[in-house]
Specification:
By secondary structure, the protein is an alpha+beta fold. About 20% of the residues lie in helices and about 40% in strands. A hairpin with a 2-residue loop joins strand 7 and strand 8.
């Protein structure tokens, strides 16, 4: 059973000066002190909306997490050089038709959550039809290893297995 909504901070990396950067995220606190993400993060790799994590606060400047359970959602981040409004107007309705949600919109960033069962090919076709690679690019936030950025995590294999 989940309880109240709360804001937590997690380590997202370091800035150009080497100082830690944290991302603030809204979560539902569970009875066992784990938390469930309400939205996909913009900069923290490896997690998405609906995932359950346990926060490690041993280093208050760099709060980390342990992934407890995946929700099956993909985190999709879209970065753009100019105003993201036009991109949002094109992408959001198409991704919403698949059951996706726009979790965050800022002038140069969009963050979506969409269930992996919608299919990588269909999701990528939509993203590639709108993002041109020069003025806008998209990335998965929880598909590749957060350290090397290339090795697929393959967490979706069990979710997509036929029953």
């Amino acid at each position: 059973m989940t309880t109240a909504l709360q804001i937590i901070e997690l380590f997202a990396g370091t800035n150009p000066d080497g100082e830690p950067v944290v991302e603030r995220m809204q979560v539902r606190v569970n009875e066992d002190d784990s938390v469930q993400l309400v939205r996909s993060p913009a900069f923290i790799k490896g997690i998405a909306s609906g995932d359950t994590i346990k926060v490690n606060r041993e280093d208050p400047e760099k709060p980390t997490f342990e992934l407890i359970k995946r929700s099956g959602n993909l985190a999709v981040r879209v970065f753009c050089r100019g105003d993201s409004t036009k991109l949002s107007d094109q992408l959001t309705p198409q991704l919403e038709k698949l059951g996706g949600e726009l979790d965050m919109e800022s002038p140069r960033l969009l963050v979506y959550s969409i269930h992996v069962s919608c299919g990588f090919a269909e999701i990528e076709q939509i993203l590639n039809s709108v993002c041109d690679g020069a003025n806008s690019v998209w990335y998965y936030g929880n598909v590749y290893d957060p350290v090397d950025g290339q090795t697929p995590l393959n967490w979706w294999q069990d979710i997509l297995k036929p029953e």
